[in-house]
Amino acid sequence: MIDEGCFHRLREGGIERELAPGVRARVFPGVHAMLSVVTIEPHSTSPVHSHPQEQWGVCLEGEWIRIQDGVEHHVKAGEFWQTPPNVAHGGRTLDSRCVVLDIFAPPREEYRRAGTGLGAAAVASDAPAT
Q1: pLDDT-based confidence at 127, cuts 50/70/90?
Q2: What is the CATH number of domain 15-123?
Q3: Residue-level pLDDT at 128
Q4: Contacts of 63 (CB under 8 A, 6+ apart)
C-alpha cells in the first residue's frame, strides 16, 4: 500500500511537468528536498539552464550526454552527478530514451504545480539547440 503523503512509486504518480519537447518529469516535493523522475525521449534535448538549487542526478535507465558547466559527459545507467547551485547544465539523448532521478535542495517552488517549461530557471541563450 502506498501512503500518498510519504510513500511513492518510481513509475507513477507525482506532479507532471513537460520541461521541453520530449522531456517529461513527475515531481515529488518534500519540505527540504524534491525528487523528480525525468523521462527523456530519444533525440530530445533538455535546454542548458541554471537555478539556485543544488541538484543531484542519477541515471536510472539508458544513457545521455549531460552538459554541465560547458563540458559534455556521457552518462550511463547507474552513474550519478552533483550540480552546484547556479551552474549551467542540460543534456540530450541519443538513439534511446533515458530516465533520470533528479534531487533538488531546497525544492524548486515552481515545480510544486503541474505545468510546462523550466520554471524560474535561467535558460542559457548561447546554448546549442541540438
Answers
A1: very low
A2: 2.60.120.10
A3: 42
A4: 74, 75, 76, 77, 93, 94, 96, 98
